[in-house]
Amino acid sequence: MVLESIARIIKIQLPAYLKKLPLPETIGGFARLTVSEWLRLLPLLGILALLGYLTIRPFLPKKKKQKDSLINLKIQKENPKVVNEIDIEDLKSANACYCRCWRSKTFPVCDKSHIKHNELTGDNVGPLILKKKIL
Description:
single chain; two-stranded antiparallel sheet; 3 helices; 6% strand
């Protein structure tokens, strides 16, 4: 039953539809088509555009991952894991801000590069702030 319906569409209805379409003989003939003739052509043109897109889509360049999706882009990339140790007792000031976005030009100290990183990626990373207790 389903195959019979599909066969009827392909063998009878589709050729009848195509015969009724106002297809001009030349490219310039498209400029002389009326609005109602264009509206009759619209479904066919839409299907042709969709088929064309689906045909070329595998050959289109893939969307690249945003470079900023990686956190550490350049600091100590030769190491499997980056670790910085700082003794709290060695803090010279009462507060110290350390970078967690890996964008700081003064790494490991924060230079507020995370603000631009967050705007570009929608991330919410911020610095690690160490406060020295004053006794």
